[in-house]
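Notes to self after the Tuesday call (sharing in case useful).
The group wants a holo model before anyone commits to mutagenesis around the pocket. I volunteered. Ligand is FE2/S2 (inorganic) cluster. Logging inputs and output together so the record is complete.
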Amino acid sequence: MSLLGCVGGLLAFLGLRFSVPNAAARNRLRFRAGLLTEFTEEGIHTQFRDSHGVWIACLRIAGKRRLAAYRATCTHLGCLTLWSEADGEFHCPCHGSAFDAAGDNLRGPAPRPLDLCTIRMTSDGYVEIDASHVLRRAAGQPLPPGSYILL
Ligand code: FES
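Result:
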């Protein structure tokens, strides 16, 4: 009986030990960014780069304003990119890759655009981003469904 108790206690400890960090990681990757009305200004919203590894972009594409979110990690070897407002480009400090505001790879060894996060508007008007579920595309290809909100 006491052996069963010990095993049960050990399993409970291991369950807590490994479920808490996983929940924290999930919260970091899937989060509410704020009300949609906070992201209607065209440009790159940089406030979630350090906390969640995500860029939010409000861009006019094919005549329509769209809100999209990209993983901030470079598609070459995963370094965190930087946004340069002056150049209108994301730069990777590791090996020199550059991406335009739409996330398309412009220069350097990066093999593809920045990965897109899934994004949606909740019923109460918030922007919800899931960076654990990314969508990939080739440079110049349209944004796939689920990767943008039409404004
Ligand atoms: S990791 Fe970005 S260019 Fe190498």
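Two things stood out.
Residues 32-150 form a domain with the Rieske Iron-sulfur Protein fold (CATH 2.102.10.10).
Residues 74, 76-77, 79, 92, 94-97, 108-110 surround FE2/S2 (inorganic) cluster (CB under 6 Å).
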